[in-house]
Write a structure and sequence with these properties.
131 residues, 6 helices, mainly alpha, 2 domains
Length: 131
């Protein structure tokens, strides 16, 4: 997925021929997660009956968002804890780690991810329409 417009410079007729008759699709970026690649592939199915329902698309995208937030929390927490871990005992270090985790969870819940998730249905539909 990029900001580059697929099939740039083609006439509507040529575009329709490639996409509708030949089922040509833009290449899918292999750096995307398996879930997103699968979602794109099934969403571009020639047969509409094989395409996922919007509720399924929303669930998959929500899982992807949660995974990325979770991965981000783990990496941020890990680097913060290792750089700030006190040298005075493991029980106090564990308390600090719990405190940092709680703080990061609050940041995520109060941040832009919350507004994205609360408005996900409209945004996801808009996002998918742009594909």
């Amino acid at each position: 997925i990029s900001i580059e417009k697929p099939f740039e410079g083609m006439t509507k007729y040529r575009h329709s021929l490639l996409v509708l008759k030949n089922s040509d699709r833009p290449p899918i970026d292999l750096s995307l997660s398996f879930r997103l690649r699968s979602l794109l592939k099934t969403g571009w199915s020639k047969r509409t009956s094989e395409r996922p329902k919007m509720t399924s698309v929303c669930k998959d995208l929500e899982k992807e968002i949660q995974k990325r937030l979770s991965d981000s929390n783990r990496s941020t927490t890990s680097s913060m804890v290792s750089s700030r871990r006190p040298s005075f005992g493991s029980s106090q270090a564990s308390l600090l780690e719990e405190e940092l985790n709680s703080s990061l969870e609050l940041d995520v819940l109060n941040g832009s991810s919350e507004s994205f998730l609360s408005h996900r249905d409209g945004r996801i539909e808009h996002f998918m329409a742009d594909l």
